[in-house]
Design goal:
173 residues, mainly beta, Lipocalin, 2 helices
């Protein structure tokens, strides 16, 4: 009986495994993260709670600068629908052909990313202010380059392993 339960658990866990990003290797247009975000990029986004209800809307202006050390610095300026204005600066490094790491002031530890074809999967944890408290929220971003100018980003937000919301952003180069 013990072996049957272990086998069922193994099948269940494998059935819930993550998407293999390498399946997008041949998709076009090919996403070059540094090329796409170098210069000016605009984004238009929404935040939804775990039930799918719209909670906030925003625009973001991003200035991407390639630094002398080879990192990409992204200065993000957010304008929220409730009047709040926030900024975040990412410093992103390329670690091989398909791998990236990034840091930001509110990131708990370095973010990691993997890109193949027209897709980037970016994972990180941020300290976010929510109702005068700081929450550690884990993000699982999937970015899809649709055209040379349009990139769509869908991010699941989790706390304690439970989905607490989603962010959708359409970037325009």
């Amino acid at each position: 009986m013990k072996y049957i339960l272990i086998s069922i658990l193994f099948i269940f866990i494998n059935g819930c495994s993550a998407v293999d990003i390498q399946q997008y290797r041949e998709n076009n247009p090919q996403l070059s993260l540094f090329d796409y975000f170098k210069g000016q990029t605009n984004g238009y986004g929404i935040v939804q709670d775990r039930k799918g209800r719209l909670t906030r809307q925003f625009t973001v202006d991003i200035t991407g600068t390639l630094e002398a050390d080879g990192t990409l610095q992204l200065l993000e300026k957010f304008d929220w629908s409730d009047g709040e204005k926030t900024t975040r600066t990412w410093k992103i490094s390329k670690n091989g052909e398909h791998f990236f790491t990034g840091t930001a002031g509110d990131a708990v530890k370095p973010a990691t990313g993997t890109a193949y074809g027209n897709v980037l999967n970016w994972q990180y944890q941020l300290n976010l202010e929510v109702d005068d408290r700081t929450w550690k929220i884990t993000f699982d971003d999937w970015m899809f380059l649709v055209t040379e100018q349009v990139l769509i980003n869908r991010a699941k937000m989790k706390k304690f392993g439970l989905t607490v919301g989603e962010v959708t952003i359409v970037f325009n180069k």
